């Protein structure tokens, strides 16, 4: 397709570039796209690259939460976590309300500025999301992809400093106080179970 229609931007780099632009236009903080290009041919060969700005001064949640817990008093740490959880839920809901699904929505794909780890930090607009190469629009089969995204978040939320109460708070923020989506909870728990089973199998094979 790239050979026949070279201006279509068929490569993975161009696709992610468009996904990043869409996310930015809809208020999702993402790395700044600096350059993108693709090389077509010869003989059907296709190569591409995407350059994005480094998220300097930022850390992933599995680093940020222990750092904040060490820096802050217990009450301030709980308030900070509430702000972080509410922002993660808001960004996830922003995607899903538009029937866009990340498909790699693990906690490690969020980034938090170190400067936003103070006792009175406002988290709205501070949390960045990366890796949009699999983002896709699913207007019909969206419940399956919604469960996949949320299952990935649940599976990857097993972090020091994150409790069951924190996960419940995320769920409530995501649902905007509507707790009637039992079918969705069952799908999420099923996806979480499948990820755990896959991880355990890999660990057993590695230890054999």
What is the spatial order of strands in the main beta sheet? 3-5-6
Largest sheet: 3 strands, antiparallel
Pick out the low-confidence regions.
Answer: none
Give the overall form: globular
The separation of the N and C termini measures 44 Å
User: Mean pLDDT score, rounded?
Assistant: 88
| Rg for CA atoms | 19 Å
Q: Indicate the percent of residues in helices.
A: 40-55%
TL;DR?
The protein is an alpha+beta fold. The chain has helices spanning 12-25, 61-71, 74-97, 142-156, 164-175, 182-207; strands spanning 33-40, 46-52, 58-59, 100-101, 110-113, 128-129, 136-137. Helix 3 runs parallel beside helix 5 (164-175).
Give a verbal description of the structure.
By secondary structure, this protein is an alpha+beta fold. It folds into two domains: 6-52, no CATH class; 58-207, Transferase(Phosphotransferase) domain 1 (Transferase(Phosphotransferase), domain 1, Orthogonal Bundle). Helix content is 49%, strand content 13%. The protein has helices at residues 12-25, 61-71, 74-97, 142-156, 164-175, 182-207, and strands at residues 33-40, 46-52, 58-59, 100-101, 110-113, 128-129, 136-137. A three-stranded antiparallel β-sheet has the order 3-5-6. A two-stranded antiparallel sheet has the order 1-2. Strands 4-7 form a two-stranded antiparallel sheet. α2 packs antiparallel against α3 and α4 (142-156) packs across α6. The chain is globular, with a radius of gyration of 19 Å. The N and C termini lie far apart (44 Å). The mean pLDDT is 88.
């Amino acid at each position: 397709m790239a050979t026949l229609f070279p201006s279509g931007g068929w490569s993975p780099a161009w696709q992610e570039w468009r996904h990043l632009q869409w996310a930015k236009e809809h208020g999702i903080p993402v790395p700044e796209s600096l350059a993108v290009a693709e090389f077509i041919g010869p003989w059907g060969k296709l190569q591409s690259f995407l350059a994005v700005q480094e998220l300097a001064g930022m850390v992933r949640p599995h680093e940020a939460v222990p750092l904040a817990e060490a820096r802050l008093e217990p009450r301030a740490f709980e308030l900070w976590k509430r702000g972080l959880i509410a922002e993660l839920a808001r960004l996830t809901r922003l995607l899903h309300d538009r029937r866009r699904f990340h498909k790699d929505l693990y906690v490690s794909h969020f980034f938090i500025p170190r400067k936003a780890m103070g006792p009175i930090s406002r988290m709205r607009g501070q949390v960045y999301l990366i890796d949009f190469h699999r983002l896709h629009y699913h207007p019909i089969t969206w419940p399956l992809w919604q469960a996949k995204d949320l299952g990935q978040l649940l599976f990857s939320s097993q972090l020091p400093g994150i409790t069951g109460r924190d996960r419940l708070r995320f769920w409530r923020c995501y649902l905007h106080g509507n707790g009637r989506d039992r079918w969705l909870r069952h799908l999420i728990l099923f996806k979480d179970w499948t990820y755990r089973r896959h991880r355990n199998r890999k660990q057993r094979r590695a230890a054999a």
